[in-house]
Amino acid sequence: MLTLVLRVHFTHIKLTIDICYVSILWCCNLITCYLDVTIWHFQDPAAVVVDHSGYAVSATEGDHTLIASDDFININLLFSRYMQQAPVLKVLSASPITFSANPKSKVTTPPSLTGTSIIQA
Amino acid sequence: MARNLGGLLALLFAVSICGAVTIPGPVSDAHRSAALELFDGSFSSLEEAYEALRVFEILTIGNKPDVSTTTCKKVVENLGSSSPVKDLFYALKVNDILKCKVNGDVFKDIALRLKATVNDASTLVEMYYSIGSLVLIKDQASDVDVLLTDADGSFHSIKALSQSDGRWRYSSNNPESSTYAAGLALEALAGVISLASSEIDQSRVNTVKNDILKLFDSIEKYDDGTFYFDEKFVGGREHQGSLSTTSSVVRGVTAFAAVTSGKINLPGDKILGLANFFLGIGIPGDAKDFFNQVESLALLENNKVSIPLVLSLPATVYSLSKKDQLKVRVNTVLGSAAPPLTVKLVQAFRSNAKDSAIESKELQYDQNNGIHFLEAFPDNVDVGTYVFVFEIALHDSAGEKVYATGGQIHVPIYVTGIIKVSNAEIAVLDSDLGSVETQKTLDLAGNDDVSLSANHLQKLRFSFQLTTPHGHAFKPHQAFFKLKHETKHEHIFVVGNTGRKFEIILDFLGLVEKFYYLSGRYDIELTVGDTVMENSFLRLLGEVDLDLPEAPEKAARLPPLPVDPYSRYGPKAEIAHLFRAPEKRPPQELSLTFLGLILLPFIGFLVGLLRLGVNLKNFPSSAVPATYAFLFHLGIAAVLLLYVLFWLKLDLFTTLKTVGFLGAFLLFVGHRILSHLASTSSKLKSA
Asked: What domain of life (chain A) (predicted)?
C-alpha cells in the first residue's frame, strides 16, 4: 500500500520533489515520504491544502493540513517508454474531499481548487 | 522579481505563523539521538572536540564514541608546545572533561606565560582566552599559582572597552561594538574576579551589573514572548548569528552571577523568554548551533539569577469521544523535575470568541508520572479550537533558588468530537408557488440514494442539521454541495446556515448560464468536514435529471476539461485488425472437371508411345552399360518427379537449381549409354 504524507502550502517556495522520486525508485511497494510541495496559486496567501478525512493523525497538530494520500500514478508507467516523452507527470493527486482554504477562517465562497484537480507532486 | 520577493515574504510569514503555534518542550531523547549523529567522533580541532564532549556531558549520553586516546594526545601536544592562547584555552577545556594525564610542571609554565599575556593583551579576545585558561588551570591543578596580582588593572582594561548601552568593543582601536563581545567580556570579568588575590572593589562590580541591566534593555522580542539577542550592525567583522550571540550573553551573565555576591535584578520573564528561545529552535542541524543551544540550556538550568521552568503539553488535540484528559508537564529546560508547585487553568476561551468556557481550575498532580492533569473537561467545553491559559504557582517561596515561571501561558488546544448529522431533506420546489413537487427524507449515515428530476423553472432545496456532542449547533469549516455532470463537469456550492439548520436552494432559472445549458444527469455529492469533527465525510446523495433549455446562440461555450494524464500516457485500446475478405472460389465440380481435362494430354502421350511400338529389346545386357541405362532412366524419372513437386510446393528458384544438377547428371549418363548403343549397332551392321 503506497502512502504519502505531505503538507501543501501554496506560497511555500521549498520544493523537495526529488525526495519523492528517489523514494519511489528505491521502494516501489511501501513508501512513506513527508514532503512539502509548492503549487503557486494566487489565492489567499494563508491558503493551504486541507483534507478533513485523509490527514496524518497527530497528538499535537490538529489543523488537518498534513495530508495522507495514496492516489499514486501507476508505477509501471514511470518505467515505460512514455516517461521519455513526458518529463512532467502527475505522480500524486489529492483525494476528492480535499480543498484549498485558509484553515483559520470559515469558507463562505466555493474554493477554486478541490478534489483530484489539486496536484500534489 | 516581484514574485520572488512576494514568495520570500510569504515564506517569512509562514515561518512566523509556525513559530507562533510552536509550544517548546524541554530537552528530550530526540536531542540525544541528534547529538550522536552530529558529533561522530572525528574532530578537526580541539574546539570541536570540546563542543562534542561538552554536549555529551550535559545530555548524559553514555554510548558516545571513545575519543579519549587521540584527543588526550592532542591535548598534551598543545599544552607542551608554545601554542596560541586560543588552542591552550580549548586544550584545557577538553582536559577539564577528559582528565588527561598532564605533568604538573606543564601547568606552571603555562600559568606563567598566561599571566604575562593578560598584562600585555590588547584585544578582548586575547584577554578572554588568557583569563579563561587561568581559571581552568585553577580548577585542574590546585597547587599552581594562578592568582592575578594586578586584578584591578585587568578588570579596568576589560571594563574600558564597554559602551554606554551595555555592549562591548573588541579592542580600543576598533570602534565597532558588539553584543557577542559583551558576553565574552562578562565571562572574562568573572574570571578576573575569581582569580583576584584581593577582593575587587564592590563599586566596580556594581557598575558591571548596571551594564548587564542595560544590555538586557536592548534585548529583542518575538510576539510569543521569546527573547533573544542580536547584533545591531550586520556585515561587520565575524558577524555572529542570534543563536551564538544569545549564547555568549547567557554564558557571560551566568558566569558573572556565579562569582559575585548579591543578585542581578533581571526580570524573570526575560530569563524564561531566553529559555523559550533556545527550546523553540528545535534541534539544530549544525554542530556549533547544537552546542550553543545545549550549553546555554545547561547554564540556564542551574543559575543564580533565576531558573526557568517550562510548561509543556504532551498533546494539544483532545477527543471528547475518547474522554481524553488534559495533561500538563512542568520541567526545567533540560527535563529535570520542577520544585513543588501547582498548575492552575486560569481561563479557557474559544479562539474566535472572548467568552470564557472554563473558570479558574486547579489541576491535580500525579506523583508517579510527574503530570498535572484535569480529570475531565467541564460540560461547557464543546468541540472547537480553544486557547487555554495556565499559571504556575510555586509552593515554597522562601527557597534558596529563584525560579522563573512566567505569567500566563497561552496554549492553543483542539477539542474534537463526533458530530451528529440529522434532519436531512432534499426537495424539488416549483419556482413560482413554492410548492413542494418532490420531497425525500435522507439518512446521511445510511446508503439510500435519491433520484430526482427538475427543469429550469424549478428549484432544488437541500437541508440538514449538525449537532455537537453537547447538543449545540455546529458550523463546519467545509460544507460543499456538488453537482457533477455525466461529462465530468462539476459545480460546487457552499451550504450556508440559517439558524441551526444548514440549507441551500438552487434556483435553476438563475443557474442555466452557470451550468452552460447542459441538460442530463447530475450526481449530487455532499462534503462536510472540520478540524474538530471526527467523522468528516464525503457522501453521494443520488442524482438529479436536469431538463434545461437549449443554449442561445451567444451563450458561453463549455470550458474544456483538463486532460487526464492517465488517458494520455496509459495503454491504448486494443487494435482489432481487419483482414481482406477471401476472394470467391469456383464450385468444386468445375475444378474437378478441369483437372480431368488437364490429365487428357498425358493419357494421349501414353497411347502414342504404345502405337509407336516402344519396347525394351535394346536394353543392354552387360553390367556396365546396364548401369548407365538404369541411371539414365532414373534421372528422367527424377525430372518428372521434380515437375510434380514444383506444382505442389516448390518455388521457381529451387526448381531451377535442382534441374541444373539433374541436367548435368543426365548429360553424362546419357552420353555413355548412347555411345554404347551406337557401337553395338555398328558392330551389328559390320557383321
From this structure: Eukaryota
